Amino acid sequence: MGDSNKGDTLRLPNGDALTGDEVKSPFLIGVAGGTASGKSTVCKKIMEQLGQAEMDHTQRQVVAISQDSFYRELTAAEKAKAQKGLFNFDHPDAFNEELMYDTLQDILKGHKVKIPGYDYRTNSLDFENMLVIYPADVVLFEGILVFYFPKIRDLFHMKLFVDTDSDTRLARRVPRDINERGRDLDAVLTQYMTFVKPAFEEFCSPTKKFADVIIPRGADNTVAIDLIVQHIRDFLNNRSRPGSTGNMALYMNLDLNASGIMGPDHFGNGTYNAIRRFSTLCKELNMQGNFFFDTNKNLPHH
Ligand SMILES: Nc1ncnc2c1ncn2[C@@H]1O[C@H](COP(=O)(O)OP(=O)(O)O)[C@@H](O)[C@H]1O
Ligand SMILES: O=c1ccn([C@@H]2O[C@H](COP(=O)(O)O)[C@@H](O)[C@H]2O)c(=O)[nH]1
After folding, report:
1. Quick one: which of 49, 82, 219, 231 is 20 to 30 A from 136 by CA?
2. pTM
3. Pocket residue to mutate for ligand 2, from 83, 95, 144, 177, most atoms within 8 A of Cβ
4. In a domain, 41, yes or no
5. Distance 192 CA to ligand 2 centre (A)
6. Buried-state track 111-127, b at ≥16 Cβ within 10 A, e below 16
7. Residue 74, domain CATH
8. What Rg, from alpha-carbon coordinates, does the chain have?
């Protein structure tokens, strides 16, 4: 970061100030999309290409977290309904919004956090298998409704929406739920028609408009994934540069269309060039239909 930023208050995307030891705040990327659109697969590919997947958890620079760890605990009556496929896991009320928000805030402050796994066979949080999320440079947070809650949406430095058509998603969900989530065909189809499809249309699909980047065809879109990976690489390199404050938010929350307001003096030349490269690539890919890029109008906090 150039000298021009010395003395600036470092801020989380929602405007909260960061001070002292807390400045090693990660760059937080939200990854939304319908069920079985390929959100986890996209995150996995990003991690693999960055050489993070095979790395020890404590050493990773990039980590991925699922929104499923923030389903709220069900009452006995709700659990009984869930076992019969009669509970709506696709409604925003199924999630613990406050816990999700507080945990993401902790992550943004550079704290180590522990979150439960999720057991789809019992429809419950798995406190026996707690996941320890060590402070990282980049955190991917994926889930069907990660852009639904405004307070949470505002925490992301970058928002991706994995846009896979609904036939493909259903065709992938059926075998996945049968083979990996302990369901039978009837239950999967009934849940899909009763809850999943209507909730996607009402709550998930409308959040696509908040995305900075829309990835058509999910993990098949290798061009888009390569671009995102390159973008993250640039930021990781920038962060490790001598003189960098290590604050990703200052680096990322930019309206690229308004690049006239910044020049090589505003950030270091490396940063500036990376942003220009990203902007140019996005425009090209947009034209090729590999990628839809929108500037982040919600996050003007530099
Ligand atoms: N591009 C793809 N081609 C074939 N199968 C895929 C592809 N992307 C995902 N899948 C499969 O579809 C299912 C759902 O993918 P997943 O990444 O778990 O979606 P989500 O996280 O959005 O629910 C998984 O079984 C996964 O292996
Ligand atoms: O106990 C549960 C909890 C969730 N679901 C379904 O999971 C998907 C969200 O996960 P994806 O990996 O994004 O598909 C959601 O559509 C819920 O319906 C479930 O079936 N049971």
Report:
1. 219
2. 0.83
3. 144
4. yes
5. 10
6. eebebbebbeeebebee
7. 3.40.50.300
8. 20
